[in-house]
Amino acid sequence: MISGSILSGEIDSKKLIIEFDKSNVDYVHLDIMDGKFTENKTWTFNEIKKLCDLTSKKLDTHLMVKKPIKYIKDYALLNNEYITFHLECDEDILNVINVIKNYGIKVGISIKPDTDINKIFPYLTYIDLVLIMGVTPGKSGQEFMEESLDKIKLLRDKINEIGRSIIISVDGGINENNAKDCIDAGADMLVSASYLHKDIKNNVNVLKNMF
Ligand code: DX5
Ligand code: ZN
């Protein structure tokens, strides 16, 4: 599966979401940053609501914020398949999981490149998706860290061992040269911004055909 991010330093988000809507992308990935967990800050909720009116694709919301709960209350109003928050946030993880679940939305937890993958294992019985970051959260256009491949493999083995169907998604620096390595390591979903933005229609299909 492919999740298309509308995060870009250059291209207008409205243009991107319209193009993703017309493409074969499985989800639109919303990168929400609070300027605290990350240096940058992204759209307000009102701006996002207007953007999301332009697509009928299901959303894959990625909250890069210190305090996810107040964001979840807003974002739950949108057409989400998944809401993902960070293991490194400042709120109680099980509580955040329950808040998302109570809205009937699937739950994802994301981990930064320097966080040990073992730290997510205690939560695997409660969640639907793990988002492994291939870059430090904050902006699009960074280079994929190859070390992330080992994390994907370890996580895939652990998920197989516990026998639950949990999606492994990989986000940051994905392109046509490293996508296959991520899939071979065990990824089910790839998130991409800058690579897809070069030619949304075509590049979504290039990545999709690698599965
Ligand atoms: C990074 C975001 C990613 C980003 C991906 O902080 O979470 O979703 O938009 O952008 P690329 O694919 O350009 O690395
Ligand atoms: Zn993201």
Notable traits:
8-stranded parallel β-barrel; 8 strands; binds zinc ion; 34% helix; TIM Barrel; single chain; alpha/beta; binds D-xylitol-5-phosphate; 211 residues
Polypeptide structure, described:
- This protein has a single domain (2-208), classed as Alpha-Beta Barrel (TIM Barrel).
- It has 8 helices and 8 strands, in the order βαβαβαβαββαβαβαα.
- The mean pLDDT is 98.
- An 8-stranded parallel beta barrel has the order 1-2-3-4-5-6-7-8, surrounded by 6 helices.
- It is globular and about 40 Å long.
- 34% of the residues lie in helices and 21% in strands.
- It is α/β, with parallel strands linked by helices and 211 residues long.
- The structure holds D-xylitol-5-phosphate (DX5) and zinc ion.
- Residue stretches low in confidence (pLDDT < 50, at least 5 long) are none
N-C termini distance: 8 Å
Decide which structural class fits the backbone: alpha/beta
Largest β-sheet summary: 8 strands, parallel, barrel
Annotation, overall tally of beta strands? 8
Structural domain count = 1
Tell me the CATH architecture.
Answer: Alpha-Beta Barrel
Name the helix and strand elements from N-terminus to C-terminus, one letter apiece: EHEHEHEHEEHEHEHH
Name of the CATH homologous superfamily: Aldolase class I
Round the mean pLDDT to the nearest integer and report it: 98
CATH class: Alpha Beta
Helix content: 25-40%
Shape: globular
Query: Which fold name corresponds to the CATH topology?
Result: TIM Barrel
Task: Please give the radius of gyration in angstroms.
Answer: 16 Å
Strands ordered across the widest β-sheet: 1-2-3-4-5-6-7-8
Number of helices: 8
Percent of sequence in beta strands: 15-25%
Molecules bound to protein:
D-xylitol-5-phosphate, zinc ion
